[in-house]
Every structure is written in structure tokens, then in C-alpha cells.
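Data availability excerpt. The first of two example chains:
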Amino acid sequence: MNTLTDILWGKKAKLFYLLFTAAILLFAFLGTRDLWTQEHRWADIVSGMFYRHDFFHPYLNDVSYYDKPLLSYWFIVAVSYITGQLSTWDLRLPSALAGLLAIWSIYRLGTKLKDKQLGLLSGWLLLTCFYFIFWARTSSADMLNMAGSLFAVTWYFEKKDQPGFFNYSIFFVIIALTSLCKGLGGAIVPVLAILPHILQNGEWKKHVRLNFLFAVIPAALIYYFPFWASAHFGGESYVQDGLDLVIRENIVRYFKPFDHKGPIYTYFIYLPIYLLPWAVFFIPALFSLKSRWKNLSSHSKWIVWAVFILFVFFTLSGSRRNYYVLPIVPFAILMTADWITENVQRGIWAARLTVVAIFTFFIAFNVVQPLYYAKTGVRKFATALKFEASKIQPWKKWEFVMLDPESKTRFYLQLSPQVKNLSGLRNQKGQNLLNIWPELRNKNPNIIFISRRMYEQQLKALLPDYQVVSINTGSNKVFDMKNNNMPIAFIPKHFLS
């Protein structure tokens, strides 16, 4: 078993093994899963940008929606220009690339702090956290935020002994770009993480220089540009101001939360969950700090302080959600890996768990998900609907009325933002759908009605002369998971030319 440890982070270990495994876990079958909850925001916003040829004013369901800065959308736009399409794969590629950057960054950081063993071990541990893989395969700003923050800290430790305008500038540019993905957390997290090291042993003295201040200017201009462009190029009817939203979503929400009001103990629960399966090592490493503290190196103490400060910062915020804890995960992993390296037996068990986690997550993300969504899902529904509708007339000639389907349905059907998604009464049964949706009275033979399976029986009674299109997975009980939110469509049976 020592051979396994040697291959992963010992004498025979190579960075290539880590990055190759990461590429498989993060990129293989990346686009197979249906859009998941918040992913529809990025799908809808980027689709709208292409539809309007306006990349400075984000809209969600044709409503101004500037709650996130623009860069996470622009990354997807860039990928789409390269591939010539906008698919789930394109939506998720920036997050997967950010995941790969995070793996490389934690490897470099661990190597710089101690040695190659700590770097590789930290990389393997981070890669085999379930929620790391999950968010790296999800279209959102969260993995971009985590990777950018970690990369900024890594850059600091790589260049801290080479203070100069160029190195400072790159550091601040990384922070600016990260902040343009999700918000000011992209600046706060690296600064708070680095702060204990700067205060150690008078480290701050070497950075008291004018070129440090001048280096902020390029980053400030880069950060400000998208907001300036939004205010000066088009968007005459746009009703939101990006910088105002930054203040509201980051500063106001921190001190006076208007949503996401999780309890004070939220991160005591979710940090261990986000570290799974490595919580079984993190918790004893945490409790051992009292007995180990005097013998810890300055770099080991810095890791602990970084975890503690970040944890306190996020806990003191009035706005708490489980995935807000994600930026703390790499530092908690570093602390765990540092503890594992102190004992050979721990390393052996860690190597075993690493291999088990790799195969388990490969099966879960790269085998089971593709098989499941090959049988069902909104993508399959969209293909079926286009096929049936095109038998009657070309797809582009149809008009659509969206009767409260899931938001992602629009993306898979490639409908324009002008097709409104009418709200429903999902929690109030027995309501007359004609009162909720008077649009049902319009029996224009060019209109396809799209809704949810939960409304199927009522809609069938109201639309007797329409063909029903839905997903039927047949007799396979594994895939035949009844879902009342799955889309359903009604096509006029008799097309009138």
C-alpha cells in the first residue's frame, strides 16, 4: 500500500497524474446532465445576450437582472463563439476550467508552503471532495469565485519575495477579475486569507512601497470597465445599475440581509459536508490543534489562521447559504493534508480513500448521469417536441405559449426571450386553468402550449384536439422516476394552413 501512496504524492508521484484524473472527472460528459436549478439563470441570461446582441445588460426572463457582475456570462459567451453553439457543455466549461485551475493552484500553494508532497496530497484531496466536483460541473459563478480567490493567494506566496509593480499588478488583476465573476468576495477572501501571513514576523514591511499603491490602478480600471460600459453603451430602457447592485448584494446583504437568512450555525454543518469524504480527517485534525500548536511551522499556523478567519467572516454575515462556504474548502483541505503528512499510517488510509473516491465519483458523474439523462430529461423532451412539431410545419414557424414550465425548458427549446413564461398556481389545486391562463382560449393552430406534467389532466380536458408530447421512459423502473415538473406540450392535431 506504500506503493499507492508513492504514486499519488510520494517519490513516484507526478503532477500529470493529478491533472489527468482531474480532467476526466471534471470534463467527461460535462453536458449530459439537465440544467440544475440556478443554472437556468446563466442559460437564460447568455441566450438573451445573443438574442439582443447586447452583452452589457443581463436580463432574466426579459427582466433586468444585474445581481451578478458580467464576467461569468462573458466566459460562456467566449466559449460559445469558439464552439459556434450554446449548449449545456458550453455553459459549464468555464466552471470546469476553473476547477482545474483550483487543483493546480492548491498544488502550487502546498508545494510553496512546504513541499511537493503537501501540494500533491492537497490536490488529490480537493479533487475528491464531492461538492468540489459538483460545482466544477455546474454553470454558476461559485467555482470561478473559489478558483480565482485561491489563485490570488497562490500568486501571493509565489511572488511574496519578489515585490514589484508587475507582480503586485497581477495579484490585483486576479482579484479584480474574480470580483467581476460573483462579487466583492473575490477580493475579501484572498485578502483575509493572506492577512495572517502579512502580520507574521513583520512581513508587511517589505510591501510598504509606492509601486504597491500604483499597482492597484490597472486592476481598478479593469474592474470598473464593465459597469462603465453598461452605463454608456445601449440599454436605454435598462432599469438596474451594476455598481449599485454590487453594494446591495455584497455589503448591504452582509450587514442587513434581505434573503438567504440561514441560522448562525449554518457553516458548522456545511463546512464538514462540503469536505466529504475528507471530513473524517478534517475533524480530528481540527481537534488535534491544541496539542500540536507549539510544534507547528509558521506556514502550518498560517493555514489554520486562514481557515479560522474566513470561517468567522462568513459566519458573521447575516446572509448564509450552504454553498457560500465553498471558498473556505481549499484552505481546510490544506490544513487536513498538512495533518495527514505528519503520520505514515494516515497517508496510507488517505491514499485508499482517494482511490475509492475517484472510482465512486467517476461512476456517479461520468457513468450514471449520462445513462440516466439518455433516457429522460428536458433535453430529450425538446428533441421529441421538435420532431413531432416539424412533421406538421417547420419548427421556426411555430408560436409558443409557456404555461409555467420550468425555466430551463426555454433554453432547450431555443425560444426567444419574447416568449413569456406565464406563472402558475402550483400549490393551489382545483383552480380553473382558464382563469389562471386565459391564453388557453386562443386556439390558434400555429400555437404550441408548453407546461408541466402536474397540469396534464386539466389541460387535456381543455385541449382535447391537441397531441400530447411528454417523456415516457417505458418499463425501466430505474429511469421511470415520476416527476410532476417534467415538461409537457400540446400540439394542434389539425394544422390549418
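And the second chain:
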Amino acid sequence: MKYEIIGGSFPAVNVELNAGEAVRTQSGAMAWADSNITMETNAEGGLLKSIGRMFSGASLMFVTHRSEQDGSKITFSSSFPGSIKAFDIDAEHEYFAQKSAFLVADMGVNVDATVNKNFWAGLLGGEGFILQKFSGEGTLLAEIDGTVVELDLAEGQQIKVETGHVALFESTVQYDVESVAGVKNIFFGGQGLFLTTLTGPGKVFLQTLTAHDMAQKLVPYMPSSSGSVNVSSSSSASASN
């Protein structure tokens, strides 16, 4: 497939397909398409595999968009402010990803749920016990919250990342968690109880924004049960900033 990533903080990707060519995507990801592109929704791999993908943040069903003639175009939009980045998937480049990273991919790319080998890393880390795994062969277009930062970790090189800022990482990278040291750091440091640790070798893609952080910022401005905005909370939040 040919593709062009457009937009700024609310990006989308234009995909051009030849006759018979198809792409796989999340349900609801399509923004608009030429009339000669067909759509088929199915639970690939069966019900149990679909449920596993759902727990990893993917939709229960996949949607296949297939072109009936050369040059057909279809556009997919991101569901959150941030970036769309392309990844080449092959036998030597498999990736694990945060929930909801998957946007669209060639039919040769496998999108699966995988259980983190370290139970506590999965249970307590920012990416959850179940991750998305991308394997096979083809092009993957992934959603990343905020701006993407790419790091290439050397053998044994380790970084510590605040919960939720890990977008994707190569399968050669070891993913784990460690507790924050010090009582004052835990209660007043603002980082929570645990940090994610990533150990090379391999590439790591971090995101500058998380859905959780954005939601926390918006809470003071949400209408109360009476339908009005909590002005005092909003004013306090503004003052703190």
C-alpha cells in the first residue's frame, strides 16, 4: 500500500490501494473512502483470540477494506491527539505496543494479544498485563499519543519511564517494572509506585502524552451532576498551573 500521513496534532493517514489490495484496521477507524472500496468485518482467529485482542486494547472485530480498482483511496484518522508512525514489520522486527496503538496495516501483519512474561511487570506496569504484538510481514501504521520520541538502546542499556509513556518497543527489548525508592518519592514525587524499565538492545518509541494525564487535567472542567462546571475546581487547577 501507498500512504501519506497528514494533519498536525490530530493526524490521519491517506492510503492508496491497487485492485485486489486490502488493509486491516480497527473497527471505526475509517474516516472516508472512495466508493469502490469494500468493507468486511470479521473476528479473525476465532472468538477467543478476538476477546484476547480486545483486552489488549484492540477492537473485538477487525475490518478489511479492499479495493476494486487501482488508485482507490481511503483515509483513517487517529482517535487521540498525537502522531501516526509507520513501522516495517518482518521476522527480525517484531513489536510490542501499548493499548490502542494499532490503526491500520497490510494484510500480512499479524495483530495479536500477548501476556507479559513477567506477571508483576504486566500487572503493575503502565502498559497492562496484556500487550499488543505485531509480527508477520508488511507495513504497520500505529497511533502514538502526543509526539513520538525514538531511542535505540544498546546491549544492556536501560531507561526508566513513567507509567503510560511507552508506545512501542522491539521484541528484543526487555520490559519490566521497579518500585520507586523512598517514602517521600512515592507519596510526593508524583510518579506513582512503579516505573517501567526497558533494557536493550533494541528500539523504543516513547510518547510525550498519555490519555490518563489528559483526562486528569480535564476533570476539573467537566460539568457536575447539575450540568454546570465546577468553577472552584477549575480556578484551583488554573492557579496551580
